[in-house]
Every structure is written in structure tokens, then in C-alpha cells.
Amino acid sequence: MQRVLITGAGGGIGRALRETLRGVYPVLRLSDRMALTPSRDGEEVDQTEIADMAAVERMVAGVDGIIHLGGNSGEAEWPVILQSNIVGVYNVFEAARRAGVKRIVMATSNHAVGFYPRSQTIDHRVMPRPDSRYGVSKAFSEALAGLYSDKHGMGFLCVRIGNFGTQPIDKRRLAIWISPRDLTQLVRIGLEHPKVRYEIVYGVSDNRRSWYDNSNAYRLGYAPQDDSEPYAEAVLAAEPPGADPIAERYQGGTFCAGEYTAATQRE
Ligand code: 15L
Which atom of ligand 1 is nearest to the CA of 134? Predict the structure, then answer.
């Protein structure tokens, strides 16, 4: 990997990876729809709206690998999801194919499977159960990655990211938290592992309270360093009482409860 592109480089994960991947690859190309801070040694800075295919073609020219973080990072009205997360991800994968990019790390999300109950441990083989239009767009990105892998031979690591941060922020996040160094490790596996063709893994640390069987990540060599448990006592003590029962029941939490109108729960 000579030149690695990070899309959505201005977001929380993008800003962290800009630091942790600094010097790992000879050139980091950093792109966002918003202006980024100026480039330093070993960096190229770019401003691209990913819904614009011509601009995306310029953005991917000459890169060997892509970490695709760009798009809308939460629930939104359909026109926003459609442009940023459906048209946007299509443009990135298709432009990457045309440019001969061999490897993409796709930032998908726990919300692609958010309607699994917290009582169930799920692995990378479960069917999508999106909890939002946002979750549907992430399931779409996983399916699109499958197409480009099968049909065009491109390599994809789809990372269903839980919640990224320096520490877990609430009870739900105790199960799905991922630290900056653990996510950096997973991203590097996605770019560098010689055998990645199409894989789904969970982007979570080694959390004792995890809802995931992340054996597929471990098979690829992932050895997370962090666990949310040391934060649990303080996080649970600060948890406000009276949580919504739908949010409490499902892994996706408030993403499941938002706009919920079903009279009965799906089995
Ligand atoms: C996500 O997919 C979002 O991008 C992030 O903002 C958080 O909401 C996270 O999931 C979460 O579930 O905590």
C-alpha cells in the first residue's frame, strides 16, 4: 500500500485514523466534503462531495487502498441517506473499480443488524436486520461490496463498527465500544491481510459484555487490546433511569425505538 485514501476524514474516526496511520503508509490522502486542516508531510488533502461521480473519480485516482468512512453517520431523512450513503457508496466503489483499487475497508455499522435482541449473540453470518434508514444503507454497502468482490475481484473488509471513542459512554456502548487503537488494528488488517476478499467483522474491542461472536475478526489475526469493563461501574452509575423498552430490548438501542410503530415484535 503506497497511497491510502480516507474518505470522511474530517469526522471523529477519520481524525483519529489520520493520526494513528500517520507514517504507516507512504502517503495518506485525506478527503471530506468539508475543508480539512492543511496537509503535513506524507499527506494529501482533498475536498470531495461523494454524491458527485466526476469528483469521486478524481478523488480515487492513484490510490491503492481506501478506508471509506464518508457519508452520513446516523439516521436522517431519506433524501440525505440516498445521496450520501447509497449514491455515495456506489460512486466510491465504482470509481475504485475503474481506477484499479484492490482493497477497500468499508465502515459499515452495528445498525445494519440493530434489530437483533440483546439476548442474542450474533456472528458475521446473520442476515441484516437494519434498525433505521441509516442501517439499511449500511446493509446496502455490505451487499454492494459483495458484488464488487465476486464480480470484479476487489477485496473488502466490511467493519460493522460499534461505537468509537476513547471510552464507552453508556450501558449500550459497554457492549459495542471500540477504542482507537483497536479500530486502527482492524483497519490495517483490512488493508494489509493478503487473503481478504470479502469479510464481515465487528468493529468492537474485547468487551466482556459484547453481543457479538467476532471469531471472523480473530481468524484474520485481530487481537484487541481494550475491554469496556473497567469503565462499567461508572457508566452504569451515570445511566439515566426509565429507558425506552424497545431501545432496551434491541442491540441498536434508540435507533430501534425511533419512529417505532409495530404493534407486535417480530420473532
Ligand atoms: C453508528 O453507526 C454511528 O455512526 C455512530 O454515530 C453511533 O451512533 C454508533 O453507531 C452507535 O451505535 O453508538
Answer: 2
For every one of its 267 residues, what pLDDT tens digit does the chain have, with 9 covering 90 and above? 999 999 999 999 999 999 999 999 999 999 999 999 999 999 999 999 999 999 999 999 999 999 999 999 999 999 999 999 999 999 999 999 999 999 999 999 999 999 999 999 999 999 999 999 999 999 999 999 999 999 999 999 999 999 999 999 999 999 999 999 999 999 999 999 999 999 999 999 999 999 999 999 999 999 999 999 999 999 999 999 988 999 999 999 999 999 999 999 998
Q: What is the gyration radius of the CA atoms in the chain, in angstroms? A: 18
Q: How far is the CA of 2 from the centre of ligand 1 (A)?
A: 30
CA 92 / ligand 1 centre spacing (Å): 21
The answer to whether 259 touches 76, Cβ cutoff 8 Å, is no
What are the pocket residues of ligand 1 if the criterion is a CB atom closer than 6 Å to any ligand atom? Answer: 73-74, 109-111, 163, 173
- DSSP readout, 226-263? --SHHHHHHHHHTPPS---HHHHHBTTTHHHHTT---S
Q: Tell how far the Cα of 62 is from the centroid of ligand 1, in angstroms.
A: 31
Q: Tell me the pTM.
A: 0.98
